[in-house]
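Lab meeting, action items carried over

1. Structure of the two-component assembly. Owner: GW. Status: complete.
Input record:
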Amino acid sequence: SQQGEEDPQALSIQEGENATMNCSYKTSINNLQWYRQNSGRGLVHLILIRSNEREKHSGRLRVTLDTSKKSSSLLITASRAADTASYFCATDARGNTGKLIFGQGTTLQVKP
Amino acid sequence: DAGVIQSPRHEVTEMGQEVTLRCKPISGHNSLFWYRQTMMRGLELLIYFNNNVPIDDSGMPEDRFSAKMPNASFSTLKIQPSEPRDSAVYFCASSFQAHNYGYTFGSGTRLTVV
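Predicted assembly:
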């Protein structure tokens, strides 16, 4: 069963705008991770946030985590056409030995 | 490092044939994961290994699927006999201390069973 549920399923924005994607999950976690997948390619790890962290930044990416609401968000600022991809959240559930369960993903299109 | 290497990139086979997918993880990574991706079901974890030992194979669909990791640098996923519903993209990923670091994914094998 899927642990993470992304919202929205699809998002279309103009270059330069910000993109926000949300992820909800069901059980307690050790950490939550975000990945990007370009069409026809493998997934690329973007950022990992631990259960005791609330916010994390990496370049134009900002991730927040609210464990009380079991939710996370990924913000991409000043988007570029090259950011067009699918974005997945993945949870490392507490009690598991490091396996990740992925959500269905958000498809982001950034128009030039 | 060349990353996680999967072969073949594409495989087209007839129903009933045996299919073997291969994966070479990143040197030094101690965990290896096999995922399957379809439009309908998304990314599903099939099996994962820690230090070459299978830890959780609860995602393997049925007895037609088997996976091995004979050493730290090689793993196979075998489907015998293959069926059209096995058509999907199969990804291998590896990680060092999976609790603390993200996965590195291979480019995947696109399997089509006709």
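2. GW to write a short summary for the group page. Key points so far: Chain A touches chain B at residues 2, 30-31, 33, 35, 41-45, 48, 88, 92, 97-105 (CB under 8 Å). The mean pLDDT of chain A is 92.
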